[in-house]
Amino acid sequence: QILESGNAKITALFCSKSEFSGEPWAKKFGCYN
Fold first, then answer.
1. For the segment 1-33, what is each residue's pLDDT rounded down to a tens digit?
2. Residue 15 CA from chain centroid, whole number
């Protein structure tokens, strides 16, 4: 998975628009809503 590899970071912009922003895996990678 790309997030696990460290090659992708979740940005605040992504989080604000993503339906995944509240998901545990998203929060693990720094996504807070």
1. 555 555 455 555 566 555 655 667 766 766 655
2. 6
Give long-range contacts, CB 8 A cutoff, 24+ apart: 2-5.
3/29
27 Ramachandran zone, left/alpha/beta (phi>0; psi -120 to 50):
alpha
If you ran DSSP here, which 8-state letter would residue 5 be given?
A: H
Sign of torsion over alpha carbons 21, 27, 32, 33:
positive
Place of tokens 């720094």: 30
Predicted model pTM: 0.27
Domain extents in the chain: 1-33
